[in-house]
């Protein structure tokens, strides 16, 4: 924060004596707000910088390169203003600039074809031609060039806010899933990028701002791409039998959208959003392992092992009539992930500590089918109808050969535990969501109603074969073999019905009443047979049926005050929770209680690009079905789980604050978010661990839980250096209890990370990027002071992308990663070096590319986690070095020839 403050102070001093400023008015000398002020290169009209005018028509563009530039002013309804300037780092005051209503030229230089940025109300529009991209870039490459836009962990961040939906020509594309759009539409097909601060459906219909907005990006296609097919086909072969193939075809017009994609590869690239894949990508797929919900550090996502992927999808959208549309898509994924990893785990209790080490040989396969549809009708000015649906099936098979040993505190092997398991899960899911928004005669009076229905079914078959050898260091070792077969069937239905009515009270005040009814029903059936071979053979059978029903009735009454700049809402809610669960032939437990849950919302937008928000909610977190299921799950002989029928709901107080500043004049983007959750009657884990290292886990209400999540982002362009830097700081704190062998264990965990990236802003021929990431996790346990853990991750990275000629592109990047862990005495350094060279055989159509991945062959992946009674580190093999030569052909990439006029 001191660094940010110092930089901000220096920038403010510099800005007073540099840049280009002026006042923009119309013919009547009335100041014009939201005029787009852009700086262009006179050589090729490349976008360099921009600003907007404020309420008084004033602009001060501080980020101007020392060069001959063109300043361009644009506002819808007025003539474009362009002027050539020579800037030498001294302040240029253009005084008053008058935009004319009629078409006229105010200077000898007019670039009417290039309007790099336009601003209108809640939309910022970028001309894609003003930003340099490579021949083979997808939309993802284009977004990385736009000011205020970042791509982080596959998510798009615009001015500090996550983008929730992406559209093509104003219509949904594969359900609006950003990752599919980013990787399957070429950058050169895009004419315009619109970043829309979209109002809620209710606010759009009633015209009353409620402060609930989402960031939406709409890509407008070039005219040459409409009414004709376009896309690309690419394929590549490499050493060690590596291969990939990609194809996509698109045909869009004013009424319909058709897109087809297909991908297959064995180079660990998913290529699209393959749902659920990353959940098991670390390769340890034993279903008997612990829930990761109780981890005390953020779970890392990994692509360990060797992955083979096949993907295909088709999307069709049609505008039935004006403002009425239907979109549907189908997506199929098949993947196979195999590899070997080694796990080192330290377990602790109040009496003794022990280690568990294992070598894991895994093979995971996935097949899933996804179907989505979306119907929207806004044809009637008085009401809006939305109907969405999603259906999928997911078939997964996990095979694991794990060889494990338990060691005592003296690092002596006491027990061997070898496991062969085959787990198959088949899941079916369906979701229907319907919403009706209706505006009544009086302005501001409206109601909306809708329902959401989710049906979920899964069938899981578990086959486990465990070989155990105890007392290895004694004269009388004990051998045991356990063969377990367990079939689990579960079906659930969750139906939610909602009705809301809004009555205007006058003076921007509104009274709102809302009723929600939720019905959640779960039925589980389990059959298990187990054979234990010791000195004798023992067989046992388990069969039980578990039912769970939950009904939540919520009645809200809230007052809101809504203006374009201020939104305030105060809510009082009656929350009635009723639960019935147990075995019908045995005992049904009934729990019911009424709660009062207040909430408060405040949002203030003093200026364009500046937003302050604060919310408070009291949330009732009901116990989940698995947490109250009284039946024992002992499929894994070393990890036995059961629920607690006496669990009470957890009460959570949630505080969230958000502040965002995005100044186009100074090219500063500052965003901070703080979330604090305080829970009482916290639902925690309770463990007992015996002398044979067998853990039994249950749940109970105990004490409090504290969670704090803070994030600060700061971005600024430094004009004199011609660079932009981004600084992203995160802090995550978690404090909770667990019970270990009937002793209270208080866990505190802190995750702190800093990410600093610097890149050049003038990317006409050279694109440079460098940065550093540092992250540290500190976890402490009150039950065992000597096992407080600290591990760090350092990452240094750099990238150079050069257009050597108009057709030849060279790219290289180096990541240098350092892992340290004080409990496992690990210091590991991994340099990862990648490079690529692409050459266009013909202008933009035929591209040959040579890709070299992991040239130093450091095929290692590290995954670490800390939980409430153990911590571990897993080191797995990854793909390693490979080289691929590929060819890409663009379909219908040339410009359409004009039709000849008849004589």
From TrEMBL:
Cell compartment(s), UniProt: Cell outer membrane
Record-linked InterPro entries: Beta-barrel_TonB_sf (IPR036942), CarboxyPept-like_regulatory (IPR008969), OMP_b-brl_3 (IPR041700)
Primary localisation category: membrane
SUPFAM superfamilies noted in UniProt: Carboxypeptidase regulatory domain-like, Porins
Entry keyword set: Cell outer membrane, Membrane
One Pfam family hit: OMP_b-brl_3
Protein name: Outer membrane protein beta-barrel domain-containing protein
Organism: Polaribacter reichenbachii
Lineage, broadest ranks: Bacteria, Pseudomonadati, Bacteroidota, Flavobacteriia, Flavobacteriales
